[in-house]
Every structure is written in structure tokens, then in C-alpha cells.
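cron nightly-structures :: item 1 of 1
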Amino acid sequence: MRTSSHLVYLIALPLFSSALLLLLGRIADKWGHLLATLVSASTFGIGVSEFVAMHSHTGANRAATQKLFEWISVGNLKVDASLLLDQLSICFVLLITGVGTLIHIYSIAYMDHDKDRRRFFAYLNFFIAAMLLLVLGDSYLNLYVGWEGVGLASYLLIGFWNQNPVYAVAAKKAFVANRVGDLGLSLAIMISFAQFGTVSFTGVKAGAPHASPAALTAIGAMLLLAAAGKSAQFPLQSWLGDAMAGPTPVSALIHAATMVTAGVYLITRSNFIFDASSTARILVVSVGVITLLFGAIVGTAKDDIKKALAASTMSQIGYMILATGLGPVGYAFAIMHLLTHGFFKAGMFLGAGSVMHGMDDEVNMRKYGGLAKLMPITAVTFGLGYLAILGVPPFAGFYSKDKIIETAFNQGGGKGIILGGAALLGAMITAFYMTRVVVLTFAGARRWKDGSHPHESSVLMWGPMVILALGSVASGFLLSMGSSLVNWLQPVVNASNATGGKELMKPLVVSLLALAVVILGAGYAIVKYRTVPEIAPEQVSVFTKAARKDLYQDVFNNAVLVKPGTILTAGLVATDHNVIDGAVRFVGWVISEVSDVLRKIQNGYVRSYALTMLVGVFIGAVILWVVTA
């Protein structure tokens, strides 16, 4: 493994620029956004140069490390602040900085009239720096620092317009939900140190084959809990829809390039834990299947365009989590879908922002309609992302999502049928709700108010959308050509060209089945939403009502977690007040009462003091007589 002195700049540049913009305050208002964008683009350039450098080496020398300083040295715990750039982390570096730079460019126009645009860009760069530290740390403890930084950055950006109480609450909800997942990562690190005496990836990987099954399962379960928090997976998915409170570029960054991808990275990076624990893999697969269906169902009933896309993200990340539980080759397909998803989901979120920009920030799709004629570039770029997420050949999602479905079926037996069937069902529901979004927004008759004047966005907004749309078309083919990504990731995740397990269905059969269910889902949506009322009907099925309420996830959390937690907290407060503080107050009361009695002895009369002395001498004499008798 070679060393590199340039890795630190990937983190230092965006972190320093973020601090500079915050410290300079209003002085940087006129040029802060330009500095932030230039820094992000420079970071992408460093990432590309490192990617090229990796290709000039072979074998183990492709990975590069850089030790910054000795961080912790306490007893047996020794941790260096070191960075690791290998075949897995470079994929994330290019995604984070590449898509992040496009979002920066888009944001220059989108946030043009916001008085706090400088602060917004400072937070964006802090977000990118934290995510880069997360994927470049060479140990779980280094990763944890970036993990917490991402949580803080998301809180700041989701609640950017915190003068609106609803937005402030949404930011707090995301922060609290992520703290639950962070507890899982903390426990996983502690168990790893107790079991292996180290928290480095190489140390844990070396010790995993010799660890007890119980320890491996515990570590895997805690890592999965952490991933569920960051990647909005069951049962910690409730924050993602409310996170749409932030500016739309934030939604694109969170959903496509940074926060929600962190959980997939964590599991893939920890492949040696999950490969060694079948129980942990079963948990991963279960969470992935539940979430991909959960998010898809929720997406069918959302009228808010951003919340519909948020439900879509939840579902697509579910596919990735499912893939990571399907064996070595599944990790590669999870990363492939993550990268293709980065293009088409970022493009669609920016497209949604473009629509909102032209519709006076209206988010209700029932008040759109016929926008394709007035916003042709937005409609075309959004449409290409739509075809990619549906998995229509030859668009990007066809190469990545079909491989996950195929690998699921190839698990064999009843397990393969259940997992593959669930993935196919998710693809059909995805086709339905995404077609619903496209039809309600760009097709049909106009339903907007007379005062609205929808128009195409500026080149600073549609330029990045065009680039992302090109990625939605070509990225899947490029990543799958000659199994290039699978071979690239093989040294990290031990992947191979095999699909894993017994081939239950031929790839062509799986693709035809996937295309058939997509046509069914999309066709039903077209028929159902050719005409649509501007106001959502109140009389709907129980199924639709449940989907509108996110399948009652907030109701469940309130009943199972919030109310019992409130009762427990009230009980602890009462115990603290009445028992602990009560004991302290009782001591004080006793001293006070005794003092009141003793105080009467000190009355200032000499005769009283003489009498007291006489009594004392008498008592002393009696004691002495008793002792010596």
C-alpha cells in the first residue's frame, strides 16, 4: 500500500473554506458562493487526479494512505488520525465532489435572492468535508468523526430556514433519529475494541474469522442500526420526508451524494463482519426488503413533489441495503446502484427545484400540469432520470437495479423467490408512483393559478441538470461494461463475476419480468392520472389514507417510543426530585431542626453558661466513675 500526501486536501479545502465563510460574516456575502463552488470543484479535481494515480498502479499499491498525527494512545487503545483511499472510497469521493459541485453551481442561481446565501454555501462545504472524512477514515473511530459531522451538517441545512417553526422541528427530528443510529455505531466500536483490541478496518478484518459468532452478530446488528439511522431505513426512516423542509439543493445533496449513502458505505466497508455472520446478513436483507416496499408504498400517495422523491430515495436505498446482504457480489451491485442513483436522483431533485422555482415555490403536484411545454429542458432532464429509476433499458437503473433483482432470485429456493418477488413488486410500485409524478407535473391540462407564470430556469440551474441527465443515460452502461465496477471493487469486498448462488432465472428472463412489471405500473398510473382534481379527494381507501400518513410511522413512534419515553422521563424526574433531592433536603431539615434546639442554649446569660458547665462537669465525673469502677 502506497502513501500519499494529498489526501488531506480533500477534507481540508472544503472544511477551511466553510470556516472562512462563517468567520468572515457579511464581508463574504458577495463572493462567498463563488469561493465555495471553486473549492468544491477543486476537490473534485483532486479526486480525479487520485483516481488516475490509482490506475497507474496495480494490486495492493492502488490503495493509498496518509497518516496525519497520532490521535489516541491510552493503554491498549491506539488510534492514528489517518486517511485511506482505496477502490471503494474513491467511488464515493468522486460522487460526493462531482455531484456536490453541480449542486453548488445550481445553488448559485437557486439561492440568489436569499440574504443568507453565504451561510448556506458554508454549510454545504462543511457537509462535503464531513462526508469525505467519513469515507476516507481508515478506522471506525475516524469514520465516526465524519459520521457525526454529517449529522450536524444535515441539521444545519434542513433547518436552514429555521424562522419557520415547522422547518426547525423537521431538523430536530432528523437530528434525534440519527442520534439513535449513532448509538448503534458507538456500541459497534466498543464491542470491536473489546473483541479485537483495535478499531481499524484492517485490524477488525484480520480478527473477524476468529471472533465468536455472538460478537460478530452484535457488531453487525449495531452497524445495521447505525446504517438505518443515516440511510433512513426501517425502523428509523421517519425523518427523511420531513427533511424536505430544507432548500431543494440540500435535498439533492442528502439524497444523492452524501447522507443517505453513508449507511450503504458503512455496511459495504464492513463486509468482513457481515460475511462472517449469517444472522447479521439476514437482518440486513430483512431491513432492505421492508424499506424498499415501505418507501414505494408511501410514494404512491404523496402530492408534494419533494416528498414523493424522498419516499423514492428511501425505497432505492432499500434496494442497496438488500444487495449488501446478498453476498460478496451484492456489495458491488449495491455500489453500482448507489452511483447510478446519484445521477438520476440528484437530477430529479434539481428538476423538482426548477419546477418550484418556476411555480412560485408551489410543491403540490395537483397544482401543476402541462409544464413540459413551458419548461422543456426541465421536463426532458427529469424524464431521463425517470426512465433511469424505472430501469428501462438502456438507462442507468436498468444495469444496476436489474442486477440486484437477479442476485436476489439467485439466492435459491423459497428465499430467492421471496426476495426476488419483493424486489420485482418494488419495481412495479416505483413505476406507478414515478409515472404519477411525471404525469401530474408535466402532462395533462394546466391546473395552476392565473397569477402563476411558469418558466424555464436559468442556465446555472438547467446546466447541472443536463450533465446529471447524461449520467442517468450512460453511467449504468459504463459501470457494468466488462464487469468493470465488480472487478474494481474486488480487492475490497471480495466480489467476483459470479451472480452468487444457483441461477434460478436467466438474466434475460429477469430483465423481461422487470420490464413487464414496470410497464404495468406505469400504464396503470397513466390511466389513473390522465385527469386529476386540483384538490386531493377526502374519501379515499384505507390503503391510500395510510400511505398519505407514511404508513403511520410517526403514530407508531409516538406510541412506542415518545409516550413511554415521556412517562419514563417524568418518572425519573419525580424520583430525582422526591427521592434523591428529597434525601438531601431531609438532611438539611434535620440539621435545621437540631440547630433550632441548640440555638436556644446560646442565650447570652452567664448563669446559663455556668449551669451548662456544671452539668457538663457532673456528666464527665459520672462517666469517669463508671469507667474506673
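cron nightly-structures :: done
The chain has a mean pLDDT of 91.
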